[in-house]
Amino acid sequence: MGARAGYHEYFDYRHHPARLPQLVDGADPVRHAVAIVGGGPVGLSLALALARHGVRPVVIEADDTVTYGSRAACISRRSLEIFDKLGVARPVLDQGLAWTAGTSYYRDVPVYRLEMPMDANQKFPPMVNLQQCICEQVLVDQIERLGERVDLRWQTRLARLERRDDGVEVAVETPLGPYRLRADWLVACDGARSLVRQSLGLRFSGTTYDGTYIIVDILLRSDYPTERRAWFDPPSNPGSTILMHKQPLDIWRVDYQLRDDEDPEEAIKPENVLPRVRSHLRWIGERDDWVPVWISAYRANCLTLDSYRHGRVLFAGDAAHLVPIFGVRGMNSGIDDAYNLAWKLAWVAQGRAPERLLDSYSVERVFAARENIRHASKSTEFMAPPSKAFELMRTAALGLATRDRFFATLVNPRQTSAIAFADSPLNAADSESLPAGPPPGAVLAECPVETAVGRRHLTELLGLGYTVLAFSPTDPRPALNGLEDLPVGLVWLAPAPGAEADAWDPDGRLFALYGAAPTACYLVRPDGHVAGRWRAPTAHAVRAAVGRALH
Amino acid sequence: MLDEQALDEVYTRTCQVMTELGEARTPLFLARLCLLLMKEVGDAERIAAAIEAARPDAAD
Is the whole-model pTM more than 0.90? Predict the structure, then answer.
């Protein structure tokens, strides 16, 4: 929203030149399988994921470098699992700050302790703080490493878009001149103000909250650990709500809510922002000098398109939906969109699956957006009460929470988690009631496994196609014969070390977590969601379930 | 005992009704809700304890 101001640069932006393809009659002569509009975290993740499936996308990005300013700051465990598959989890973990906990205060009393799920089964922390510009740079580095497999075109701005039955033609502008570009499929990853969305005449539906938050990034050296801190009505800023997150490179993000009677245009001016931040830092005991880096204003939106597929045009990330920041579902849900879409679009573009598979992308991710909006709305209503009534109830809840832990759960910030698609058209019926484990539509529960080459995690065993996880003490292959014509890989998981199993349960945890004793069979989609599960491996059930994507 | 999500839902529903009614009618709504919940609790001792716990002190 509105005014932004940068005061201090801490990131070394690399500027990329524009490039023109060899034009024929003012057009790129190559007809591309997939064009991605927008090289933000969603577009770049989608490009990497498509390349992984053997599709070479062209990405057009209007700017000459990664994002400026103060944008997404937290990367979720689910996004890290996706980044792992895209080959970028390591640099994100190396540069980011992992965290698991947080504290909420009412005035100066701690009232709620946030502990995000973190157990010995996990490969990744629940959350990593990393500025969006650094995250995007990691993705760009990986694209450059892939060489010809992704065609990333900087300083290339979408001007017009024409839809055809069999594809899309766009007019783009670059500093070297305009040209036309044709593609079989176009994915709009061009953000909240999506030009693609506008040019198709599509409108968001949903609600916009009135409350305005000021987001201030500052440069401050502090040894305080990485955790989420929230203060309601702190003595440093009576009546306000303040959030603080630590980020790499000594950047701290401070968010606070404006009162209803404050004019956002005035409130965003440094002379009004800096005294509030100074007062708060002093009160929490930060003594070092600090400087502001970036100041912006934010207003919570709960908006989504009703469909993310419009013929040959698909929508992902902020171009498709806007979710309030509280709970960090913005960029993370966009990365999930990209990963859900990539295998489906690749298979359709390669003629391996019917176009209808893309409708399941829309159904699943519109559902996810609505779920994300539902959860984020609850957080927003507590962080930024939309009426006097919500504010009165919050005051009552916070006061009681100082003495009675029962009410503390109302303060829970409800951080993002992967959405399960209970009603996905790709789910096989869940009729064999396993005693535990993720049902169809949910993502896999992480768990360590032993392999011939050492300790691994279950999600690392997934292949590019569907994967059958066959939990069995004896060789499951005879029961899974005749699937060779399908894009299905087989992983044999044994309860104890066995001669030919691909992996085995180190200590009984894996089979218990999946309700898999004595045998079970989980069919997992290329994006890590469970497609079906049965008490024992059977080729016929697997074939029918994979058929939901292929026919 | 209400679980986390159930508490969340009834809390939000209460906020929504209060928002619909507006500030002027909210005290009457809260008083009626209080009387109905007294009937549901049905235990004078527990209600008396809740009355004391609800009384805001100077800091609240």
Answer: yes
